[in-house]
Amino acid sequence: MSHIASRLSAVKPSASMAVSQAAKDLAATGIDVIDLGLGEPDFPAPAHITEAAFATARKERMLYTASLGTTDLRKAIAAKFKRENGLDYAIDEIAVANGAKQIIFNALMATLEVGDEAVLPAPYFVSYPEMVKLFGGVPVTPACSAQNGFRLTPEVLEAALTEKTRWLFLNMPGNPSGAVYTEAQLKALGAVLARYPDVMILSDEIYEHILFDGRKFVSFGLACPELRDRSLIVNGMSKAYAMTGWRVGYAAGPKNLIKAMATIQSQSCTSVSAPAQIAAKAALEGPQDCVTEFRVEFERRRDLVVEGIAKINALSLDPPEGAFYAYIGCAALIGAKTPAGQTLEDDVAVAKYLLDEGHVAAVPGTAYGLSPFFRISTATSEAVLAEAVKRIAAAVAKLEF
After folding, report:
1. In this structure, are residues 178 and 320 in contact, taking their beta carbons and an 8 Å threshold?
2. pLDDT tens track for 101-113
């Protein structure tokens, strides 16, 4: 039998991927399942983006690129940061990787020692704590309540920081909550961080263009320029441009960190595939109408789900401020009995019940560090979402309270 490294013993597979697989397994039996487990836009990538990659690949050899990404793509990313975020970065302060997740993975590998702590405000993206644990780090997961809009406050941050803290992760708009921070709120967090010079900040801004109700995005880098030398601004192509399968993420940060991440990447995957980098450059430099069109559609879908969930008395959902998820409170369902006589003891049981009875796949809040909730992705058609809400309502109506 193969020996598996002990470092993997504390690491769990992706919960959202596991839910999606469970949905596929149930669907394979002939049941009509609505899979709302994965956050993946249902739009095709805009034609000018894919055509740029195909056209170049037809006429040129696709060779290895520099580990950090092609110079052309990094110039396009630097121009994007300047144009959209008011941030100035040189190309040797920019890294390109196979998705934002690999950016984060490389950054943690480059910086974490065994026992170092990373503050991950809950609810957090499912992969954050597992990556931290993979490198021997300790996730610290302060709860950010629905009453505070799922946002980290200066008081909660201060209480979470110790001499062992090496990273604070921010995700805005947040997955799963959709929480957005104002410039003032970010500055207030920055004032706390200024007193802890050994703490680095990872600001995951991959949903920056998916904002609702007229909100304007403010990058952590713009709000707290005094922390530039220890801030890593993470982004990618997957969400804004519907390019999940192209696997292109990028980041800007201090040169020494970017150089260390490049070393890791050069000895692992070498680089992002050349055609994908060409597509990413075309996306950043081409027409941006698609970004606005996608955002408008995501807001319509958000509104449909908020309105539908509001009609289900046992569930709660404040309108998400961004991203394309609904983090639905299900505290009133805990303790209820299913038609089969089983008691719903936690949000894991709630999610299982919704899949088994309602044939809707959702991810339990436990996976995001804050219960009792469940997350559904709203990155699918209005017709599918309407049917999903209908099924959830019907399943809840069958419970005995």
Report:
1. yes
2. 999 999 999 999 9
